Amino acid sequence: MDLDAISHHFFGTTDIDTLSSGALEAGRERVSIAFGTERDAGRKFALWAVLRATGDALDPMRAFKDPREQRAAQMYASAIGAADADD
Fold it and tell me: Global pTM?
């Protein structure tokens, strides 16, 4: 999934940093609903990553049933956390 396409579809903009808190919360809710109904593993992971980036993601163990997806999400969250710590 293309991040700009996801941002535009769910948040109405490709620049999420410009959103008001209400618009951000409404976009998160739309992404969360899509995440809960998505069947494709790759799309579901992309939606989870958007939720993670906007501060609203479930813990990987709760978000994913498949152990491989759980591990991938844990590794992603860890890598992002390490990158954030470097800034």
Answer: 0.86
